Amino acid sequence: MSNSETGLWLRRFSESPAGAPPLICFPHAGGAASSFVSLSRALAPHAEVLAVQYPGRQDRYRERTVASISGLADAVVRALGPDLPAGCAFFGHSMGAAVAFEVARRYESRPGAKGPVHLYLSACRAPFLRETDTFRPREDGEILAELRQLSGTAQAILADEEVLGMALPALRADYRAIDAYRAPREARVDCPFTVLVGDADPIVPVHDAAAWRAHSRAGTEVTVFEGGHFYLDGHTEALAALIRARTPADRPTA
After folding, report:
1. How far apart are CA 191 and CA 76, in angstroms?
2. Catalytic residue among 16, 35, 40, 94, which?
3. Is the dihedral of CA 213, 41, 103, 53 positive or negative?
4. pTM value?
5. What domains, with CATH codes, occur in the chain?
6. Could you count the other beta carbons within 10 Å of the beta carbon of residue 205?
7. How far apart are CA 175 and CA 104, in angstroms?
8. Which of 46, 54, 105, 142 gives 20 to 30 Å between its CA and that of 172?
9. Which helix (H) or strand (E) holds 148?
10. Measured distance CA(56)–CA(43) in Å, rounded
11. Tens of pLDDT along 98-155?
12. Residue 239, exposed/middle/buried by CB under 10 A (0-12, 13-18, 19+)?
């Protein structure tokens, strides 16, 4: 998994043993690769965590944002290359879950190519539930109003006007991307899902998250954590333990 775009799109925050199974992590709307630092450290002895860095934030701040889920998925596939490493799994939080799913669909659609072995889909509605939604780009005030409902990372953005000003272009693009995203109920992949959601998430009810089971041919389990949309901020160790338990130790390394 190495080409001219890999280093641009992927970040590694911890060293892992040679042959550790890769876990590619996809951030939420407005988020960056650094949102997975804690999870990377918790999994370092067990998995090689690679976090996707979307354009328009942090060290890619000057780059043009990508305002569609399909555009992000296409770019990530180019960065990862034609073949995923053996034992590779995806973890996506909020908007990142939709991107992870679309990347998995693209790999499975390629003759002879293999998709990820597992999808961890966190704090996100099943995409087929969006089919009847009417798309309308949100104004900045609407985006900020939703962020105020959330806990954790979103509050840190709102608390600092300078950070908020820098984050708004990425937030606008990401909200447009997820609001416009649609996938039919029959859109499925072959790998199993672990769906993760907070019991007090104000924008993703548990039953909307659990509806992801319609998109897997291999089965879905649902795990509910105490907390809101950013429940994972307070459950890093539990989340890492869950991922370790679902990653067999004898994954092939080539």
Report:
1. 19
2. 94
3. positive
4. 0.93
5. 6-245 (3.40.50.1820)
6. 13
7. 21
8. 105
9. helix 140-149
10. 27
11. 999 999 999 999 888 889 999 999 999 999 998 777 788 889 999 988 888 886 666 7
12. buried
